[in-house]
Amino acid sequence: xxxxxxxxxxxxxxxxxxxxxxxxxxxxxxxxxxxxxxxxxxxxxxxxxxxxxxxxxxxxxxxxxxxxxxxxxxxxxxxxxxxxxxxxxxxxxxxxxxxxxxxxxxxxxxxxxxxxxxxxxxxxxxxxxxxxxxxxxxxxxxxxxxxxxxxxxxxxxxxxxxxxxxxxxxxxxxxxxxxxxxxxxxxxxxxxxxxxxxxxxxxxxxxxxxxxxxxxxxxxxxxxxxxxxxxxxxxxxxxxxxxxxxxxxxxxxxxxxxxxxxxxxxxxxxxxxxxxxxxxxxxxxxxxxxxxxxx
Length: 295
Prior knowledge:
This protein is mostly beta strands. Helix content is 13%, strand content 34%. Strands 3-12-11-15-16-17-14-13 form an 8-stranded antiparallel beta sheet. A hairpin with a 2-residue loop joins strand 16 (253-261) and strand 17 (264-269). The protein is globular, with a radius of gyration of 18 Å.
């Protein structure tokens, strides 16, 4: 298994349906594939130097992913509104991110490797809204990142459009209108804890697993692919990288999803991510985060 400093990178670009570009980044054994605008039926050839499971989907048992609109009348819809699709500068989606402060977003370190700061976070990328204007935020600076905990913290600025210009000065009112932020949980977590996971698998509009099978499977970190990892059994696919793993009752992010193997998916405990962010940024920036459960 590749370590933190020894890695094999693979980039494959192919044309799909004569119009869509698909890019796959393979950063290390155990990393989740990153697909751009891939249709559900698309098949990407497996390179000889990659393990077979690298291109397997991380559906655990029956596929429980559903369009977020199916949850629109539930509390889970509001919990997941701060979750964004991460797009490159050409407008192709490749990862999932989430808003943690008015001008801060989080996604995976391996998504940073692919896009660096040339990315846009787009909120409310949902089935009914896919053709409309959304709140979009471009990267201004990457404030912190860590491969072992597979996170990157972005400072962003709004991408102005005609619909948003009149709202730009409203601050907290606009933040609430756009779904607010996700609280980061730094406290105790338990095996069997019920979860929800939402994101943008295969760069599709937002989908969610809120099934009874979506729960924490381990809470003691073990090294997998050079990352301090715990397991969950919520369904994800390539492109779900960077999704927050949310406690079902509170909506707090208890972990950061990054990849999967047969029978389970992998994430980083949020307590480890928070500890590292606190060391990496100044106190003013850290205070912007909404944190619960942390001593």
